[in-house]
Task: inverse folding
């Protein structure tokens, strides 16, 4: 046996361990890879796999201190806005999650079954400089390994330049800027149009924006298969039927300008926006809905929008961006348990009314009546000039205030929702009372501590052992302040 072998045998594992430790942020993920979140991070994003350009990275994003999202970031841009995420519908725990690779990539929690995994087996995972994460399997041809899975086929809320968006995919908005769980809006391709849909009741989707693919000279040939869309480097969203038959061009403001990188995002407010990277920031160059009042729920449920400003449909409730006009679950008017109250308001219209269910009726009474009798109907809007009656088949969201006479709104308010409202008021009142009491007790504690300290002097205080008790009182004060600030 070569005597050099022994030290090598000992040193090699040590070196490879060091190597592994240093290269947890590597250019590819191979079998045996395992990563856990680190607590000593400067930023909330911990990169694990970075593409060769250094522009994109797959990593752990810390969300609200304790949760973990496995996602891809565009590093020069904002590192709070992922371009793709694995587990947005099921956040993991920062403290007990790990990512491992052995045939496939698995995100798991020590206590439960895998939170997320790729369905398929491969040899390695790579991140391309387009932002596409791929699971590859070696094939006979070494130049082109077989792509088992790619993140570009499973978009979340963002479409990157060069990514194909097909009829079997959808973009789903996230709930808010800080909450990445699934929101109410989605984008889908249909036979001949691209549509944005809102889901306010879990059973009926409402189309609120659409783009028909007939703007180009070429017509859609029936039977040629579904169309697909792609964000092109020269500033437009293209719809194709085949690679050689372009059926639509949705041009952005920077049309024909070759930017370095582009993305299209379905935003938490339901708007679809395109951006290009100008080497220092993402610049918006397209917005599907330019008037905020035409967004599906700009001011929330039962809100009223006027030139981008918000108030509430009933004049008694004060609009606040946190509470909106109503909160709580939207209940079902058809289960027969809860009644409803009617709210009427003049000079209001529905946003995107041309896309709503509608019919022509003889009078306002007829319009209201048809909604009154149908428990799936949450509201009706009537225009007494055109005599068109629009129905809203989900809990009414934001209406648009208009100047013209003769636009009538009829809105059902579920009584359970109102009860929820009253409970909330009760909750707030209780909280305030509790805070006042706690502050009072705390103040008394401080006062008595101060009083006794003055009487006994510092030595006496220590002897009497009063300090711990007064500390508790002080804690109660600070605790109550926290409670009030919530
Ligand atoms: C990173 O992105 C910028 C802007 O798009 C681009 O100019 C640059 O070439 C990219 N980096 C690399 C190494 O490709
Ligand atoms: C990886 O997978 C192979 C085959 O499924 C299995 O034999 C092996 O034990 C696994 N290795 C680890 C570290 O889990
Ligand atoms: C998009 O689709 C075209 C045509 O099918 C294909 O050539 C191209 O490789 C696809 N791009 C990606 C990133 O999958
Ligand atoms: C990118 O846009 C920002 C803000 O609009 C601007 O200040 C900056 O100069 C732009 N950068 C380049 C390289 O154009
Ligand atoms: C609210 O106030 C407006 C304007 O003052 C009025 O036109 C409307 O009828 C009121 N609506 C309700 C529901 O009280
Ligand atoms: C309620 O209205 C919807 C949509 O117009 C309709 O499909 C449904 O049949 C109606 N239900 C009843 C009970 O009239
Ligand atoms: C429409 O309603 C307005 C406001 O109530 C009223 O002044 C007008 O006469 C109505 N027009 C018709 C054609 O009924």
Result:
């Amino acid at each position: 046996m070569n005597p050099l072998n022994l030290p090598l045998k000992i040193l090699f594992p040590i070196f490879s361990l060091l190597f592994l430790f240093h290269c947890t942020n590597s250019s590819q993920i191979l079998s045996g890879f395992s990563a856990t979140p680190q607590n000593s991070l400067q930023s909330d994003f911990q990169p694990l796999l970075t593409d060769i350009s250094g522009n994109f990275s797959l990593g752990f994003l810390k969300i609200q201190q304790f949760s973990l999202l496995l996602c891809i970031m565009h590093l020069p841009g904002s590192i709070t806005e992922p371009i793709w995420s694995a587990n947005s519908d099921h956040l993991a725990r920062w403290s007990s999650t790990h990512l491992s690779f052995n045939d496939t990539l698995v995100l798991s929690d020590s206590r439960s079954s895998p939170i997320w995994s790729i369905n398929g087996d491969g040899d390695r995972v790579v991140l391309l400089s387009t932002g596409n994460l791929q699971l590859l399997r070696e094939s006979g041809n070494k130049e082109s390994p077989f792509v088992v899975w790619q993140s570009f086929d499973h978009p979340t809320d963002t479409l990157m330049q060069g990514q194909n968006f097909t009829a079997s995919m959808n973009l789903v908005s996230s709930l808010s800027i800080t909450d990445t769980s699934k929101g109410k809006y989605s984008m889908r391709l249909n036979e001949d149009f691209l549509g944005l849909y809102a889901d306010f009741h879990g059973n009926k989707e409402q189309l609120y924006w659409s783009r028909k693919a007939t703007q180009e000279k070429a017509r859609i040939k029936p039977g040629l298969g579904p169309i697909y869309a792609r964000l092109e480097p020269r500033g437009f969203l293209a719809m194709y039927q085949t690679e050689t038959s372009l059926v639509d061009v949705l041009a952005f403001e920077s049309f024909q300008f070759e930017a370095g990188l582009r993305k299209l995002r379905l935003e938490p407010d339901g708007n679809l926006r395109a951006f290009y990277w100008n080497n220092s920031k993402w610049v918006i160059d397209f917005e599907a809905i330019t008037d905020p009042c035409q967004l599906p729920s700009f001011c929330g449920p039962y809100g009223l929008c006027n030139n981008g400003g918000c108030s509430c449909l009933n004049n008694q409730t004060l609009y606040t961006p946190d509470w909106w006009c109503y909160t709580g679950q939207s209940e079902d008017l058809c289960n027969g348990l809860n009644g409803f109250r009617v709210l009427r308001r003049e000079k209001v219209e529905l946003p995107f009314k041309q896309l709503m269910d509608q019919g022509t009726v003889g009078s306002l009474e007829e319009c209201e009546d048809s909604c009154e009798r149908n428990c799936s109907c949450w509201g009706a809007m009537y225009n007494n000039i055109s005599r068109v009656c629009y129905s809203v088949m989900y809990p009414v969201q934001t209406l648009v205030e208009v100047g013209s006479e003769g636009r009538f709104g009829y809105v059902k308010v579920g009584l359970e929702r109102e009860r929820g409202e009253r409970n909330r008021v009760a909750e707030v009142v209780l909280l305030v009372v509790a805070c006042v009491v706690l502050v009072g007790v705390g103040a008394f504690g401080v006062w008595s501590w101060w009083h006794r300290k003055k009487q006994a002097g510092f030595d006496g205080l220590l002897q009497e052992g009063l300090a711990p008790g007064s500390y508790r009182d002080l804690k109660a004060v600070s605790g109550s302040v926290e409670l009030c600030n919530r």
Remarks:
- The CA atoms of residues 189 and 397 lie 25 Å apart.
- Residues 152, 162-164, 243 surround 2-acetamido-2-deoxy-beta-D-glucopyranose (ligand 3) (CB under 6 Å).
- The chain has a mean pLDDT of 82.
